[in-house]
Structures are given as C-alpha cells and as structure tokens.
Amino acid sequence: MPISNYIIFCLTLFTIGIVGVLVRRNAIIVFMCIELMLNAVNLLLVAFSKMHHGAAYLTDKASLVGAEAQIFVFFIMVVAAAEVSVGLAIIVMMYRNTHSIDINFLNRLKN
Amino acid sequence: MNLVEIAFWGLSSLAIISAIMVLISKNPVHSVLWLIAVFFAISGHYILLNAQFLAIVNLIVYAGAIMVLFLFVIMLMNLNKERDPQKNVWIKLAGAVSGGCLLMVLVSLVKQANEVNTKQVEMGIGHIGLIKTLGKVLFTDFVVPFEISSVLFLSAMVGAVVIGKKDSKLENN
C-alpha cells in the first residue's frame, strides 16, 4: 500500500475534525472533533513507523526500527485520556455556571 | 485488488462517512456513537498495519473509556435536539469551504511530493507492533517518560476533582 494513500486518508479525517471545530457550537462536539484529529495523527504515525520498519526489515529481520513511533502513539493516547478528564470537568463547570454548553458564551469570559 | 486493499478502502470509507456523520447529526448522543464507529475503523487500520497492541489500546482507552465519559457527561446534562445551539448557515458554509480549501491544498502538495509517492507501507511483515516488543522498548528505553505519565495522570485526576466540585463560596454570593 503506498504511503500517500494513508497520508490522504489521515488528512481527510483531520480536515473533517477542523471543519467540526469551526462549524459546531456545542462544546462537547467541538471536543470530540479534537479527539478525531488526534486519532488521525496517531494513524499517520503508525503508518510512517511501518514504512520505516519495512525498509529496515529487508536487511535485519530483528530490527526494532519504528517501534519508537508506536510508543509515541501510546503516549499520545495517555495524554489524551488525561486531557479529556480535565476538559470534560471544565465543560461541566461551565454548564453549571451558564446552563448552556454553547461556546459563544465563552466570549464573555471577563464578565 | 487483493484482500488487504479491499479492507483498506472499506475501513477508510467507513471512517470518513462516520466522521462526517459526527458533524451533521443533531443529537450529541448520536455523534458519540458515530465517533465510536470511527474509532473501530481506525483500530481496524491498526490491525491491518500489524500494530496489535495499539489496536487493543485504542479500543479500550478511546472507545471504551473516553467515549463512555463523553456519554456520561451528555446524559448528565440532559441535552437534546431542541436545545442544541446552531451557528447560522453562512458560518457553516464558510467553515466547510475553508476546510475544503485546506484539504485541496494539502492533497495537491502530497500528490506533488516525489519522496512520498515512491514509498510503500509494508503491512504484513515485522513484529514491532506486538505487545512483547513494545513492552521491552517501553520498559527499557522509555521507562522515565512512562513514570512521568503516571504523575500526569495523578495531576489530571486532582485537577478534574478540583474543577468539578461544587464551589460553596460561589453559591453563597
């Protein structure tokens, strides 16, 4: 499978996430679109790791080239889990104060 | 067209259609369910790439834990279709057009790059995605970041509790 297929697929998913952040006003949906973008990047990292591993595998069957990228994806998932817990707590607090999850309320943050 | 290519295109189209449905469904609960479908498709891609550990972690952490957290929050807030805030149609159109322009520019860039168009992803070979290999790498080369991430989790937990608890001073005012 050519790497460009993976790149274009991940770019499409990432762009859908960007459009979601631009278009929706529901704070939870915006947050979910950020998760979508993170996942697109993760998939691209894994595809690149397999691309580099495939080149190294021909010379050395036991090479570990590319394993770092998968560890990196693992750490991205760890950070995303921590980020989601804090972000959802912030959204719940915002809902408690304003009784809405419309992100346009946040442009009056100073009041 | 062999089996791997059929699986690639099937999973890709499933992921993209589900991602679009996340955007256009009015009910937030439906959006969460479509996002879970996207995560399943991405896990299928990981399995195709022979990254079995990441496929399982993606399912357990994302589709299992994070999405359940989203569902809990949506159901606690009792959101429904009538109260879902909507932007006006011109802003939606502008967002879609600008996103389409970005995608067009990026795809044309990828199509022009010679470096990218000659490289192949070797899908079936290799063992770097297996739990045994990744565990060895994680606990030898990356053990310090692994331990630091536990501190990150602790601070995230404390932060979520502190932010989420009811502020008694605020209610008295």
Radius of gyration of chain A: 19 Å
CATH H-tier superfamily of chain B: NADH-ubiquinone/plastoquinone oxidoreductase chain 6, subunit NuoJ
Here the CATH topology of chain B equals: Four Helix Bundle (Hemerythrin (Met), subunit A)
The CATH architecture assignment of chain A turns out to be: Orthogonal Bundle
Structural class of chain A, by secondary structure, is mainly alpha
What is the strand tally of chain A? 0
Name the helix and strand elements of chain A from N-terminus to C-terminus, one letter apiece: HHH
Shape of chain B: globular
Mean pLDDT of chain B: 87
Low-confidence stretches of chain B: none
**Binned strand content of chain B:** under 5%
The CATH first-level class of chain B comes to Mainly Alpha
Work out the radius of gyration of chain B. Answer: 21 Å
Helical fraction of chain B: over 70%
Which CATH class of chain A applies here? Mainly Alpha
Please tell me the overall pLDDT of chain A.
87
Q: How many individual helices of chain A?
A: 3
> Biggest interface in this structure?
A-B, 73 and 86 residues
